[in-house]
Every structure is written in C-alpha cells, then in structure tokens.
Amino acid sequence: MKRAIVMGGSYAGLFAARVLSEHAEDVVVLEPDVIGDDGLGRRTPQRHQLHALLSMGHTQLERWFPGVTDELVKGGALLGEGDDVRFYLDGRLKAPVRGARMLGATRPFLESHLRRRVAAVDNVRFSRAQATGLVFRDGRVVGVNTAAPDGETVGDPVGKAVGAEVGETLDADFVVDAMGRNSPLDDWLLRHGWDPAPVDRMRIDLGYATALFHRGDELGSTVIAHSSPGPASDYQPTLTEPGALAAVEGERWSVVLAGYADHRPGSDREEFLRRMRRCVAPIRTVADRSEMIGDVRTYRFVESRRRVHSRLSRFPGGLVVVGDALAGVNPIYGQGLTLSALAANALGAHLRSHPSPRDPAWGYFRLAEAVVDGAWQLSTTADLVQPHVTGPYPRGYRVQKWVADRLTEASVRDSAVNARYMGVVNMELPPKALTDPRFLARAALVLLGR
Ligand SMILES: Cc1cc2nc3c(=O)[nH]c(=O)nc-3n(C[C@H](O)[C@H](O)[C@H](O)COP(=O)(O)OP(=O)(O)OC[C@H]3O[C@@H](n4cnc5c(N)ncnc54)[C@H](O)[C@@H]3O)c2cc1C
Predict the structure, then answer these.
(1) Is residue 55 part of a domain?
(2) What is the CB < 6 Å shell around ligand 1?
(3) Measured by CB atoms within 10 angstroms of the end CB, which terminus of the chain is less buried, N or C?
C-alpha cells in the first residue's frame, strides 16, 4: 500500500500504526488532541483513571514494542511479580498464582512511551488534525477529509503548527477508525449510503473515581492490590468496597474506587478516603498513611457496547475499526487496552493474507470479533449479577451463574484453579477453558475440601 491513515492516535491507533508500518509506505496518524508529556488528551478523559494491563495485553505490548517494559521500569514504572500482585474476593486474599506479573504505571506514562516508539518508526508520521469525513469510490474508501482541531483554524498560529495537510483531503489505500467510543464513523457511513454495523449494548451505569497518593514504604513490595465483591456478598459492596491500587511511576500510588448506579463514587476527597477505609487492607493503609496528590477524578461509564460488522452484508473496502470504536466493555475487567492490541494483531494477520483493497476486510472483522466475543461474554455475563442490569440474558444464564459462583469460590482457595481462572480473566485463555471437565473436577474436589 502507498498510504494508510489511522484516525485517532491513542492506544488503539498507536498499535494499528505500528502494524501498518509493515504494510504501507506512508502511515499517517491523525490526532487532534495535544497529548502533552502528562499524556492527557481532551477527548479521552478516561486516561485519568487507573488502567491495569492484563497479562495478554502486556505480552502484545512487548511483541510490538520489544524492550518497552524495561524502558518503562527505568522511567519509574514497577513490575510486580508473585506476591507483589494481590487479588482479593469479598475481602479474602486469593490463592497465589505462580508466574503472575503485572505492570504498575499510569495510562499516560505507558502511552507516552508507545507514542515515542511509534513516532520513531521511519514511515509513520503524526498530523495534529481531526478527520471530518471519508471519501468513497467504487465501493471502497479512498481518502480522508481533515480539518484543524475544533476551535482552531488553519492559518492561525496554532493551526500552522498542526501539520501541512490540515484542511486537505488525504488519499489513502487503507483507513483505520481508532476514534474511540464516540467515533463519528456511523454518521459518515450513513451519509454515503452505507449501513453502519449493528450495535450490541448492555447498560451497566458504572462510576469510577481515581486519586493519586505519595508512595513510601507503606506496603513493602506490593505493586497491585485488587479487590472485588464475589458470591459471598452476592457481588454487592457489603463486605468490602470494590477498588484497586497500583504502585506507579513518580513514587505514587494510583487508587481507583468503583460502584454501580446509586453507589457511584464522587469527587469529594474526604468521602473518597472514607470509602478507601472500607476497602481491603492495602487500600486502607494508603488512606491512613499516604498523602493524596491533587483531585479525585471521576468518570461515568453508562453502557458496554460492541459493533458487529460480520452481521452486515456490505461494507466499504479499505476500512477497518479498532479499539473502543469497535468495542468498549465494562472497564472493571481491564480488557480495553488488551482488546486494542489484539485488534492490531488481527489487522496484521489480515494484511499478511494479501487481501484485495477493493474487498471489505471481512477477514479482519472475523478475527477481531472472535476476540471481542470472548471479552464480551466474560464481562456481560459477570455484569448480569447486578440487580440494576436488566439483560440481555444469554441462554442458560442461571446454570452458568451457578457454575461461575462455584468456580470463583474454588479460585480463592486453590492455586491451580485460580491459575486457570486468572488465565481467562487475563485473556490468555478463552472462556471455554473454564468448562474443561478435568478443571471442573479439580474445582469440585477443592470445594469438597479434598
Ligand atoms: C473509566 C475507565 C477505566 C478503564 N480502565 C481500563 C483498564 O484498567 N485497563 C484497560 O485495558 N482498559 C481500561 N479502560 C479502557 C480503555 O481506556 C480503552 O479501551 C482505550 O482507551 C481504547 O483506546 P482507543 O484508542 O480505542 O480510544 P481512546 O483512547 O478513547 O482514543 C480515541 C482517540 O481518537 C481521537 N479522535 C477522536 N475524534 C477524532 C477525529 N475526528 N479525528 C481524529 N482523531 C480523533 C481522540 O482524540 C483520541 O485520542 C478503561 C476505560 C474507562 C472508561
């Protein structure tokens, strides 16, 4: 390909650009936000929230950006191993998993390293512009209309700094929508007579709040502590508050609290500290012994959503969708960054099969949707335990929940059961790994106390 354009230069866009750099002579990333050293863009307020990277996401990070973990750790991020990574359920510490590893870093810090790595690739360039529409010809996308970022005009001092092509239409052989949850792609497709992909939704009404704290030696070598309600509390915050902390760069703790519907956390500092004191021991300790830095930042996540392109009978060639624009699921399960990376893998696999640019990228969508489907099943089935979540229920839900409750309980008690359970949570194994008869037999023996 001569030119590929990635619309959106956040996590999913960076992975897509890295993959495309192996398939196109010129890769242009259009990103309207100034993403400063703090890595915070105006259009992505979720960057303030604690972001955990699942182990599959970490593997993909190293695959596409070898050595980045070392760079992050040199810059102050932490790599938690073994007992440094602690998961609690209903206040009980889960059985340890051999080989567990998790990175402690803020999302802006992680992303700024990726951006530097992508910017260093010879045939990738960034343009500070927003995509405003697509150009279609003969059933495929052949270009992207660009404009100066909202509120800025081409020609003014800010506009001039944004890039030579702003306000132009850029020709493209291949275009990636990485514009996040609020991508305008559906409108653009409709305007040109194409149907947008059908959307699956589940309303969950989740609230998030994150605050940073100075980090000393309050918790020894702990890097991650994560606590969630489980079967013993009927998944309600009655035994402990759900929350997590991560040791991050800059000698800080990042602490997140979460709650559904009326139990959404607010931005009041004192209330945040009070709520931390109802969490598991590591989070309580930070509330008591560390000083909060700055404000509590909140975020409301109304619904999980995925677009299913394989249900369409026609779609333009030369166009794919990645990251949150494709699927954004309940962030509590930490799947978003990993899904973005896995969509990039799917894109790489699709492009290596030498598809015709005229054809819709069905091969890509099939691969990407298979991955999304695993994450969607896991998160939406888990969310149905909340009384305010009203469906849709999958077939056999009651039986599934009964089994899942027992497996969850066994995963607290037994390392081997927990290793497989966490393998699914970390997206290294598909959900069906939990239905293997030998695994179920082991979980049964654990529950019977044998
Ligand atoms: C509260 C919360 C907590 C989360 N926690 C986790 C977690 O712990 N672990 C995890 O893995 N995931 C987590 N996620 C999910 C994660 O944030 C997303 O999956 C991830 O940001 C998706 O990246 P993206 O690049 O697709 O979209 P985004 O990060 O939203 O970026 C979209 C980009 O597109 C750009 N853009 C928008 N419009 C245009 C345009 N017209 N032209 C060009 N560019 C445009 C924007 O400026 C932005 O940079 C969380 C999400 C939320 C909401």
Answers:
(1) no
(2) 7-13, 30-33, 41, 43-44, 46, 49, 51-52, 57, 130-131, 178-180, 208, 299, 301, 323-325, 328, 331, 334-338, 340
(3) C
> What's the pLDDT band for 275 if we cut at 50, 70, 90?
very high
Q: Is 147 helix (H, G, I), strand (E, B) or coil?
A: strand
CB-based contacts of 396, cutoff 8 Å, min separation 6: none
Please indicate whether residue 113 or residue 357 has the higher confidence score (pLDDT): 113
Q: Distance from the CA of 299 to the center of ligand 1, in angstroms?
A: 13
Which domain covers residue 288, as residue numbers?
Answer: 80-106+205-303
| CA 293/CA 217 separation, integer angstroms | 17
Nearest CA-CA partner of 86 in 424, 427, 334, 412: 412
Ligand 1 center–CA 337 separation, angstroms: 8
Mean per-residue pLDDT, 389-409: 91
What single DSSP character describes residue 66?
T
Are residue 215 and residue 267 in the same domain, yes or no? yes
Phi, psi of 355 (to 5 degrees): -70, 155
Angle (deg, nearest 10), helices 415-425 and 437-447: 130
The pTM of this model reads 0.95
Residue nearest to atom 38 of ligand 1 (CA): 179
Q: Are 281 and 211 in a shared domain? A: yes
CA of residue 47 to ligand 1 center, whole Å: 7
Closest CA to 177 of 28, 40, 326: 326
